[in-house]
Structures are given as structure tokens and as C-alpha cells.
Amino acid sequence: xxxxxxxNPVPIAVIGLVLLLVLxxxxxxxxxxPVIGGGTTYTAHFNEAAGLNTSSEVRVAGVKVGEVTKxxxxxxxxxxxxxxxxxxxxxxxxxxxxxxxLLGDKYLAITPLGGAAQDPDQTIPVERTDEPYDVTQAFQxxxxxxGQLDTAKVAESLRVISATFKDTPADVRRALDGMTALSKxxxxxxxxxxxxLQGSDRLTGTLADQNGQFEALLRDGNLLLEELxxxxxxxxxxxxxxRALSRELVGLVRDAEDDLRPMLRSLDRVTQILVDNQxxxxxxxxxxxxxxxxxxxxxxxxxxxxxxxxxxxxxxxLKDTPxxxxxxxxxxxxxxxxxEN
Length: 341
Description:
The protein is an alpha/beta fold. It has eight helices and seven strands.
């Protein structure tokens, strides 16, 4: 046989992956294997789940014998599927949801009864199942029971009993005196206990009335979380696109770096020339200002241009003409406003 190092690694890798998948599946479904797992699965109907969850323990006489495999709704009732191993379940067995810890954990307690074995295909009916007692209902019943008591008569009865046994031995008298003190305490605290129980009754009623609002609040919270999740995805996409854009811009700058460098150098030289000739530019702008003002005055009176020519005709040419002596006395000066020379 060839050594492994000389064989084709592809089939070896495929076989290794298949073996790993098989081992993982076996480990995941170990409880269903006939040797190391197994067991018998039964079902039971309950009026409510009462906090029982999948993987909760199943106990018989306080000993763990299995676990709950499924909790589901079945035609208005709660159907609990549980698997047990190495334990006998009779056709009259009783199933109850019990409290495991003070933190509210629950487990399924089975009481095996009956003369024959329970058929796994037959569901244990609600007549043979129990749920934990409702604490709210207990407070309501306590409030109604306390409200029906006549505490004054109870206190009077205890006082009559104490007076009747006043000549009895000291131990009995002390016990009766304690009963009297208890009756007085109950009587003095009657109003407070009644208010407390009425308050708890109103509280439970208010919570029951607001159940719809609580459900709407939870639904709205779920919608809010879903919207935040969608916004998170949109922001994530925006950041990813921004990062891709920055990479493209960096690549663009790098590709155009050879072309941009001469252009930036030329722009720098032009800027330096303008800075060096700033004084000449200021002087040119100061000189051009009055020139353009005069030009604007000459062409701003209509569709013509105002002009004044002086010295074009000498005084000798005007002699013996109507314009003789009509030359400016002090050289070529433009006429003043108002038509005066």
C-alpha cells in the first residue's frame, strides 16, 4: 500500500470532511441513538405551559429521568412532549409542572401509576395533569375571604374563650392571652389588611385591563427594533460605499498624479508672477479708473460721442470771417457748463 503522503490529497480531504460531518451529526443527535441515547417519548396535555420550556427536566420521585423535548399549542391546550429512559410510565400516571428554583425554573414531575404501561401514542389528558397554583388568583381569593370575615365577632369569640379559661393553669392562660392579643392585633389591622388586599385586587385588575396595551407596546417595540435593524443595514451599506469611493478617489489621484503635477507647478508659477507684479497691477488699476470715467462721460449722452478739438484752425485763418476773434483767450480750454467760453 502507498503511504498517505504519496496519495492524492483531494479524496483524503473529502473523506475526512465526510467523517467530521458524520461525527458532528452523531454528537448532535446522541440522545436519539439506541445505545448511548434513546428512551421513550410521551405526550401530555396541560391547560397552560406555566413557564415549562424545552430541555426542562423530567423527574420521578425527585430523580431526573429525562427532559422535555417540545412545548407546543394543540387545539387550545398546551401539548408537552417529553422523553424518559429506564423508567416505567403507567396508564394512570399523573404529570404535573412543578417549581424547581425560586428564580422560576420549572420541571415536569411524573407520578407513575396504573396497572398497564402507558401507550406512547396516547396523550395523557388534562384530567391527569396539574399546573402550579396561580399566585394572583390566590391573592384575589384571600381578599374575598378576608372581606367576608367579621373580625369583630372573631375578636369577641377569642375574648370569651380567654375569660372562660381564666382559672385554668398558667400555661393555658398564657396561650389564651396570646390568642386575645392576636385577636386584638387582627382587629386593629383589619382596615389596613382590607385596603392592602383591595389594592392588590385593583392592581391585578388594572394589569388585566391593560393587557392589550402591553401587547401593543411589545408589538410597537418589535417594529422599532426591526426599523433600527433596517437602518443599521442602510448605514452599513453607506459606509461600505463611502469606503469604496475613497479607494476609487485614491486610485484616480494616483493615476492622474503625473498629469496633475505639471499643471499645479504651472499654476504655482502664475500665482508667483501675479504676487511679484502686485504693485504694478495696483498702479494700472488706479490709472485705468479715471480714464474709463472720462470715456463713460463722453459716450453716455446718447447715440454719439462728445468731443472737443482745440487749435485745429489758427487765428490767421479766421481773420476777416464772422468767427474772427472767437478763439479762447487763454489757450485751448474746453467750454464750461452753460455754454460759456
